[in-house]
């Protein structure tokens, strides 16, 4: 979610450092470092135990065959080999990307339009924000159950279609029905969130730019795409990256929609709702193939990393005045834009 | 709940201010958006207050029925609703308090003190934030099993008791709004690190703590995959897992499941509405500063 990275603030702090150090050095010698080090230690201890160790362990585990109870059996790279030959895995990868694309593109577009409209609105902005944000804070499990009933064969969605003389759609039984239903849930949940993020970005754009556009006779669409979008690039980048990371980790919607009793899930009819994380969960925690699950975690990580980099390049690619942005460059650039 | 924004007024004049007609169109589209945003909640109330037969009726019944209390009563008879609610409250409240304490303490140190390897340690924070949770789902479960915490609420509270996001957020805030002069004044009075943190810094952190608190609380309350994996005893689960179980086992009894969903959604909505004003502003600020 929202990140607050501001390394650009660091230089300012550095300039202040000498004089503060001279004040705090006097008593205590090296022991003066103890309280701040103690203060930051909880995070690093927790991170070592529950962060670093599991990650290293998952790498180790991905070379083992293990059901969680018996002995581990070293199988080397075979888990990865099996995974690459596993047609269900590839199906889940494809499903995840299709759902990601079907949800992210319309979602970011709608959010942009919504933010633009909200920006031009003077009254009730606070109430609009609350209303748009509520989908994002509510339990995904509960809302998936609600959407499940809306998309049922004789549910509200099909009733509405029949009322206007169309045929019902197999929302939860056909390939594109399943993908659309999951995407609609994701869009519903995240449009408002992204619109508010975009709105904040819009409000940081100096008013003169809009006035200049108006003087030049630009209409709303031209203003949106020629003035707003270019200036919003860092914020759009943020939204695109977070949406990608979230989108590639879809789990709850599919799991709750298609879960049946003890066997877990196959992701619905034709496994069209099977996503990567759902398959990971199914293999590791329902079929007790922990090594396989660990290997899948690493492949997911690789996919997310690649997509995040592609996202960065796409959204910030046409920026002429900056070299290829590494993470540091990217953050510095954003910091500079915010005048920090 | 109207959190009127200062900047919208002036900037709002710049776009969409064309004709009266444009403004009406803008308003209609925005209201339509609100309708879509809120409709599922209305529909949840309709389904939770009807009978299961109502759901299969064509044309569908679009107004709430009279059975809400019956259905809620049946939820209480079917699952240990208050038990899971209690578990969820314990996790969300304790987890949030720990996050607020540890994150603000670390942020105070990072913002206002010098110590060896400070830059390196802060850089590590940046890196840790990039590790996706799903990567460690399997090994973290194994770790919990080793600790004997599988099935225990410890597994939900302890690992997330301090997080990189919160430390970034609080440090940023501390740098901007905690004057060195105030700390120096405290030092002259003989206050040490922890005393300065507790009496000077913490009260000033309050606005930032409010956002981090609601943000963390909502996250812990709604978390699903991790409790699903780690709470191995079906009798002792959080609300989200209990609700998913209810849905799996009774999904032909729609009105029961819907009443359960409604009961699980309401507490959090109340918490959100209470803090929405500050929360939304800070959320937006955090994202644009990135």
3D architecture notes:
The complex is a heterodimer of chains A (340) and B (290). Chain A is an all-alpha fold and 340 residues long. In chain A, 70% of the residues lie in helices and 1% in strands. Chain A folds into two domains: 41-78, no CATH class; 85-318, Orthogonal Bundle (MetI-like fold). Chain A starts with 9 loop residues before the first helix and ends with a helix. Chain B contains 15 helices and no strands. Classes of the chains: A mainly alpha (340), B mainly alpha (290).
Quick gist of this model?
The complex is a heterodimer of chains A (340) and B (290). Chain A has 340 residues and is an all-alpha fold.
Strand content of chain B: under 5%
How many DSSP helices of chain A?
15
User: What is the CATH topology of the largest domain in chain A?
Assistant: MetI-like fold
- State the order of secondary-structure elements of chain A, H for helix, E for strand: HHEEHHHHHHHHHHHHH
Q: How many distinct domains of chain A? A: 2
Oligomeric state of shown chains: heterodimer
Q: Strand portion of chain A, in percent?
A: under 5%
- Kindly state the number of beta strands of chain B: 0
- Helicity range of chain B: over 70%
Widest sheet, order of strands of chain A: 1-2
Shape of chain A: globular
- How would you classify the helix and strand content of chain B by structural class? mainly alpha
CATH-wise, what's the superfamily of the largest domain in chain B? MetI-like
Flag low-confidence runs of chain A. Answer: 1-26, 319-340
Largest sheet of chain B: none
What is the assigned CATH homologous superfamily of the largest domain in chain A? MetI-like
Biased composition (Low complexity) (chain A): 1-12
Transmembrane segments (chain A): 37-63, 99-118, 130-152, 186-205, 290-310
Region (Disordered) (chain A): 1-30
Biased composition (Basic and acidic residues) (chain A): 13-22
